[in-house]
TrEMBL record:
Its EC number is 2.7.9.1. The keyword Transferase applies. Keywords: Pyruvate, Transferase. Residues 26-68, 71-273 form the Pyruvate phosphate dikinase AMP/ATP-binding domain. It comes from Actinomycetospora aurantiaca. Residues 402-471 form the PEP-utilising enzyme mobile domain. This is Pyruvate, phosphate dikinase. The keyword Cell division does not apply. One of its GO terms (molecular function) is pyruvate, phosphate dikinase activity.
Length: 590
């Protein structure tokens, strides 16, 4: 193929390496934007270029890679080659790349990534000679074939545990008609197309629908030079949260896997070690990582989720993004950022949504009842909450039986629709930064990970109570106790701030002010058959409303639209936050 570096119009790629020029997240996606931010701060980041979301839209419009993109892929690779003094597909100092999705709105684990691209038998030999380790090079080749076979060729066979490249290739050949091309350029073109296509996968569509994310955003594709956490004993990979995504405390929260690649950690197939393992093995690298994490937390004005790799004792940062967090962590982090002088109270109340407030006020398991219950299994608490349901073993069963408890050896992006339908998720393996944990927190579904081998089989069909706050699974249904909005310091202060910025007054149903109100329209007295879209028609001139229907986000919005000035609610904070969000969405400032 031609190796010209001449750019042709339109331009489909961006090189986010100029510290003075901030790229558009809409154009390059959140992942590439974070690379630009880290690089502009002087942090160690492998070089990369980005195929934009405009190219993704053109891909779907034209039914393939748009004209001109092929030449720009060549130009982008040439930039990486020059910066690293390596050659893509070369037989000396070969360059391998990762091809990673990155939408403008974070959707962790929903789209595809292909690592170690550019590998073939000749490149394997060159990598083995450079590293002085044929086993390492063979493992990189095996991994690449697995990625390419699954993400590009659509192989549905289990490839992860096959012993070598030949076994992976045979399994792919038995399942699909295509083979993995030896030409790295052909690999690259096909991988970019596959990542584009993954933005319209069933799991990605389901995730966007669940969170109300626009369906036309597409994805950018980041092509980045590979660094190898599986190179030697002074190499590894990990994930670090600058603040706990479970309870919001400001302390490092993460995991490290020596001699691993990033996919090993997030897939949940391998249970990694605590971050203290990195501190013991490579204390200087650990210190460098924590210094970078503090800077990213400060610069980002929010808790960060950081992916990193250590290659032969050198730290590389691969991504930093606002961390998906539990409702408890969202409230505590927002409050802490105000105390630290990072956020104003007005900004803090906009960091927590009504759904999170509702979640935080859900009932908790009763301590006495738990003490008397039969403990069936235990693991790491990854996304807190309590749920009771019948255990099912597949995502399809969870979809057929909403409210069941989904138990898996480990979850993958294909399980997301089942996770959305389930009341709780438990896994046999994986840590608190695995796919199940991260997606569980994003969905606010109670999740316990790493419960041990055999849990799926032993619990299938049983009714259990999952206490994902403590990481325990009990037999049968366990009693719960109601949470008190006024007994939680975090909620009390957030409610006070929300009171100040809310466009509507929200009174406690059992408070004196509510009792002194004049006529109040009570939505609970309306015939449910007459509700239509779920919210009753508020009479003209009504100044105050009460009832369960107005404690939902839809009800609060309806009250604001009707010009109501007061809502009486059993739980005040969710209504206040819904009112503020609706107020902001209509271009008004509190």
């Amino acid at each position: 193929m031609s190796t010209t570096t001449t750019r042709v119009a339109p331009r489909w790629t961006v090189v986010p390496d100029d510290p003075a020029v901030e790229p558009s997240k809409e154009l390059v996606g959140g992942k590439a934007w974070s690379l630009w931010r880290m690089r502009s701060l002087g942090l160690p980041v492998p070089p990369a270029f980005v195929v934009t979301t405009e190219a993704c839209r053109a891909y779907f419009a034209e039914g393939g890679l748009p004209a001109g993109l092929e030449g720009e892929l060549v130009a982008g690779i040439r930039l990486l080659e020059r910066e690293l003094d390596r050659t893509f597909g070369g037989t000396e100092r070969p360059l391998l790349v990762s091809v990673r999705s990155g939408a403008a709105v974070s959707m962790p684990g929903m789209m595809d990534t292909i690592l170690d691209l550019g590998m073939n038998p000749d490149v394997e030999a060159a990598l083995a000679a450079e590293a002085g380790d044929a086993t390492f090079a063979a493992e990189v080749h095996r991994r690449f074939c697995g990625f390419y076979g699954r993400q590009v060729l659509g192989c549905t066979e289990e490839l992860e545990d096959l012993p070598d490249t030949d076994a992976v290739r045979r399994a792919i050949a038995d399942d699909v008609t295509e083979e993995i091309p030896a030409d790295p350029w052909e690999q690259l073109r096909a991988a970019v197309g596959a990542v584009f296509a993954s933005s319209r996968s069933r799991r990605a569509v389901a995730y966007r629908k669940h969170w109300g994310i626009r369906d036309d955003l597409g994805t950018a594709v980041t092509v980045q030079a590979m660094v190898f956490g599986n190179l030697d004993d002074s190499s590894g990979t990990g994930v670090l949260f600058t603040r706990s995504p479970v309870d919001g405390t400001r302390e490092p929260y993460g995991e490290y896997l020596p001699r691993g690649q990033g996919e090993d950690v997030v897939s949940g197939r391998i249970t990694p070690r605590p971050l203290t393992d990195l501190a013991e093995r490579l204390p200087a690298v650990h210190d460098e990582l924590l210094t970078a994490a503090r800077r990213l937390d400060d610069e980002g004005r929010d808790a960060q989720d950081i992916e990193f790799t250590v290659q032969h004792g050198s730290l590389y940062l691969l991504q930093s993004r606002p961390a998906k967090r539990t409702a408890r962590a969202a409230v505590r982090i927002a409050r802490a950022l105000v105390r630290e002088g990072t956020l104003t109270p007005a900004e803090a109340v906009r960091r927590v949504n009504a759904e999170q407030a509702v979640s935080l006020l859900r009932p908790e398991i009763d301590g006495d009842a738990a003490a008397a219950a039969t403990l069936l299994a235990a693991g790491a608490a990854a996304s807190p909450g309590v749920a009771t349901g019948v255990v099912v073993g597949t995502a399809e069963e969870a979809q057929r039986h909403p409210g069941s408890v989904l138990a898996r050896h480990t979850t993958s992006p294909e399980d997301v629709q089942g996770m959305i339908a389930a009341s709780a998720v438990i896994t046999e393996v994986g840590g608190t930064t695995s796919h199940a944990a991260v997606v569980g927190r994003a969905l606010d579904v109670p999740c316990v990970v790493g419960c041990g081998a055999g849990v799926v089989a032993s619990l299938a069909g049983r009714t259990v109570t999952v206490d994902a706050t403590s990481g325990r699974i009990y037999d049968g249904e366990i009693a719960v106790t109601a949470a008190d909005e006024c007994a939680d310091d975090d909620l009390v202060e957030l409610t006070a701030w929300a009171d100040e910025f809310s466009p509507v007054r929200v009174l406690a149903a059992d408070g004196e002010a509510a009792c002194r109100l004049g006529p109040v329209f009570d939505g609970d007295t309306v015939d449910p058959e007459a509700l239509g879209d779920g919210v009753p028609t508020i009479p003209p001139g009504a100044t105050a409303v009460r009832g369960a229907v107005f404690q939902s986000a839809d009800g609060a919005r309806a009250a604001l639209d009707a010009g109501v000035g007061t809502i009486v609610a059993t739980r005040r904070l969710p209504v206040l936050l819904a009112a503020i969000a609706h107020h902001d969405a209509h271009g008004r400032t509190a």
